[in-house]
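Please predict the structure of the following assembly.
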Amino acid sequence: MNNTYLPSDYLPILVQFFLAAAFIGGTMIVTHMIGPSRKSKLKDDPFECGIESVGDARTPISVKYFLVAILFVLFDVEVIFMYPWAVNFKELGMFGFLEMLLFMALLLSGFYYVIRKGVLNWEE
Amino acid sequence: MIPNPNIPEVSIPSVIQNIPLQHYLILSTLLFVIGIIGVLTRRNAIIIFMSVELMLNAANLLLIAFSSYRSDPSGQVFVFFIMAVAAAEVAVGLAIIVMIYRNTRNTDIGFLNKLKW
Amino acid sequence: MYPIVLLSFFGIVTLFLGFSKSKNILLPATLLFLIIALAGNFLEWNKGPLLYFYDMLRVDNVTLAFNGIILLSAFMIFAISGGFQDNPDSEPAEYFGLMLFSLVGALMMVGFQHLIMLFIGVEILSVAMYVLTGSNKRNLRSNEAALKYFLMGAFATGFMLFGITLLYGATGSFKLEQIQGFASNMQVGSESYILYAGLLLLLIGMLFKVSAAPFHFWTPDVYEGAPTIFTTFMSTVVKTAGFAALFRLLSGSFTGVYGFWWIVIAAIAVLTLLVGNIGATSQNSFKRMLAYSGISHAGYLLIALTALSKPSQNAIIFYSLAYSLSTICAFGVLMLVSKEKTIGGQPNEYYDAFNGLAKQNPLLAFVLTVSMLSLAGIPLTAGFWGKFFIFTSAAERGIIWITVIAVLMSTVGIYYYFRVIISSYLKEGDLVKIRVAPFYKVILVLATFLTILFGLAPGIFEGLI
């Protein structure tokens, strides 16, 4: 495998980047030019379902979303320990496998605790 | 003890080394100082917290740079640990902020303005 | 090594015990866990230096002695918590689980040989403490303390991490031995400056955690706002672990650059002594006074670190033990007395809560008096010998001026420690007889007994290590 890259080797990435930017920019400009635009108060409403919108969009969100999001962050980040293990899976062998099983068991015991606590119980 | 498994020699693409180490050092130090200034001058708990995260990430960046230049993976392993621990800290910190919000019913966390540090 | 593995496992078990119907088994179970951990700790006594986890953890008699102090303090604190039965809102299983986990972190800090271990230990300890500080969810003071502690703790962690990063950049390793090897044979150059900067930042982070001035400002607020039982935990276990970690760091890695850091630590020690003692005199709240007294005791311990001579090691161990025992007594009595009267829904933690304590509760007054005498460093208590050993270690290194300042400051200490003794013996008050659970009494008496025992015969302890 070739491990030495010159800056010119990254040119395709740059081209790809410009193409993506150009596509987004281009479509936005073109839709503005060719589409009809009528402005009225009703058109500017966030929802247009025939019912007048009530209140502010920034209402407090149920704290359950917060709990689930935080739990997601916690369990999500633990996966990074599996990347180096997966890369070196063969070298680490049985010992590494058992260690990872232990790690997963500890992680899952935390998950089981969360379930028993009823945090993921949506309808109370 | 179990014998240390053979860790293959890590080679770094030479293009990374075209950027001198000093640049990483200066960038990380700048980020770190910005984080400190943020913690010391801001009065909103969430922004202080973001500044702390900036400090941690400055350390992460510098660790990766040192690790690459020394061809030594232990620095990168440390970054994994920092990321995992930072996630745990985020969980606890946000929970504390939410707890205060529930008691004071204040989105702006004006609560912090009353504190004398 | 055994207590680390055991306590991690027991912590999880404790969490799941919380789901069982009977809440009464929690306290006996956790006390049993701690006894098992203590026994496991001393299994390795005199086995010589052992290295575990790919040389990341070192177990020798110093480690075991610090572990012993931490586990013993934890045992006493768990015992006087009474299983958190008095508060219906409390979640005993979680509190005990978190405290067991935080003990794991403390033990990792004591025995670390690798900076990753130090970082993880500090974080396990701190994150658990943030939660416990805010455990009184409905109380705004507790909330405020938790937020302050969390933000300042995370800030300190940032410093620590950047320091570790710079040390890694300079030396190319996280291992204490290799850093020591590099620091001893270092040439003056860009790498030495990076090493110095890293060491300073790491020290700032660690000094934050042990609440040394000028990084102490969070301490009084957090100690006051947190539930008293967790304040006790913070001021004993966290402080002991922090100083054990600082001692291991400085003695294990940086003896080669002693000329660089000793003056920094000496200056911080003097400042800490001044701030702690002078701050404590102006307090009206006993709990807040104990927080400032904790700062001043950090100053004394820093003197032993400044000297880093042969007696330093024993001095730090002995001082931590004496300080922990007296602090547990002081907070233990405070918890009982403050419940008697409330001011605006808060427990009365002011000095006047102790008025007339001796009349109806002679035992509590005696326990309180011994602990105050020990904290002040009066002879015939363990605290006196703790200070004596620390001053000896400074004299060994030939730093006399710092000892003079410390002795002056400990005379200031007599003023504020005696205020509460005067309140309890000489002032009139209408305190009724306080009902004390038998187990609670046993723990207080045991701690008092040990304080006097080590005060009469400090040699018992010195022969051990």
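The helical segments of chain B are 21-41, 45-70, 74-104. The two ends of chain B are 49 Å apart (CA to CA).
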